[in-house]
Amino acid sequence: MSLPPRTSRPHGRGAASRALRVAPGPSPSPLVGGTSSDVDTWRGMLRDCLIELDAIPIGGTGNGAGYTGWLRQLDLGCLTLTDVGTDPVRVVRTPRMLAGNQDDFFLLSIAQEDSASLSGNALSRLRRGDAVLLDSTAPFQLSANEFGHHLVLTLPRADVTRVMPVSGEHVGRRIAAQNPVLRVLRATIAEVHSGGERFDPDLLPELGYVLRELVFSVLRSDESGDQSGVNGLLGHHAQLLRMRDFVRRHLAEPDLSAKVVAAAFGVSVRYVELVFREGGTSPARYIRQSRMEEARRNLASPRRRQRPIAAIARSVGIENPTVFSRVFRAFYGVTPSEYRRSQAGERGDGETPVREVTTPRS
Questions:
Q1: For the purposes of burial, counting CB atoms within 10 Å of the CB of 154, is it exposed (0-12), middle (13-18) or buried (19 or more)?
Q2: Residues of the chain scoring pLDDT < 50
Q3: Of 7, 167, 218, 294, most Cβ neighbours within 10 A?
Q4: How many C-beta neighbours within 10 Å does residue 232 have?
């Protein structure tokens, strides 16, 4: 079984990556990688899919004390997206590894858990959502005292420097999670990452170009720090992703509307409506749909089974339980209580099973 055709590959280790592919099936999978219970194996996975790195367990992990790590990589043509997780560890790119090194990449590493990076003299404490740019031709270190988890975008240096100059000040410097363009990038990565195996392989290079342009915008916006400059860097598609992210983070606010979104982004309500219309919806419709999808997830969650339905309604910004029930039924064809029972398997004698709901009605 071969991997799908690629336009280019940042690391040039196709044979090793093919050996790591874990997704079975009759058609080629764009995902490579796997899970390891041995730190040496995980170190080899890093080498095969990213670059040569040393991995040193911290605390009680490794050395027969139990270890868990994973690496899953999605090849997007002009770049790769790699999901890397590990028990407490220090990952090091040493000067020795640079001797005869032919790797020439930039790696934008986005922390999913708190960690730290050291590149040259730049020590950065990374909080969840922060990012740091690393250079494969220079020593660096990433460490996590708790479970480490990063999403790494790997781009050939030539592709980056062809578009913008990258100075030593860029490398190793923390890019804060609050950076608005980084928010857009994270939201886009979440969409790509969650649907990687379902996408048509022919679509993956196009997604790679979208991510690459967002990486360039993140690096540029980190220099400007000015909201008007940030708006100038973003086209309507990127602004839409950014606004969707804002909506999802503010669902609990009852007054959430196009007016609120416009005020948060410093634009007009008409502009917000235009951006959402180009995405095939309206701000009001997207807010309603997001609220219902979040409510459905909460109702299906075993951890929230004892939470009152009225509380779930308030958590998505609907204070009246009757209104919540009516809107939920309009979207899914069942009431919130019926849907919760269907997910818990708690149907009474003679009760008709409630159909499973996965997609809201338009």
A1: buried
A2: 1-28, 224-230, 232-233, 346-359, 361-362
A3: 218
A4: 13
What is the model's pTM?
0.57
Q: Tell me the backbone φ, ψ of residue 235, rounded to 5 degrees.
A: -80, 180
C-alpha to C-alpha distance for 362 and 354, rounded to whole angstroms: 20
Nearest to 331 by CA among 302, 301, 298, 290: 290
Which pLDDT does position 235 carry in this prediction?
62
Amino acid at 151: L
Kindly write down the DSSP assignment for every residue of 113-149, as one continuous string: S-EEEEETTEEEEEPTT-EEEEETTS-EEEEESS-EE
How far is 183 from 221, CA to CA, in rounded Å? Answer: 12
CA 162 → CA 10, 33, 166, 327, 353, distances in Å? 15, 30, 10, 51, 59
Among all chains, which residue has been given the structure tokens 């280019």?
A: 8
- Fill in the amino acid letter for 148: G
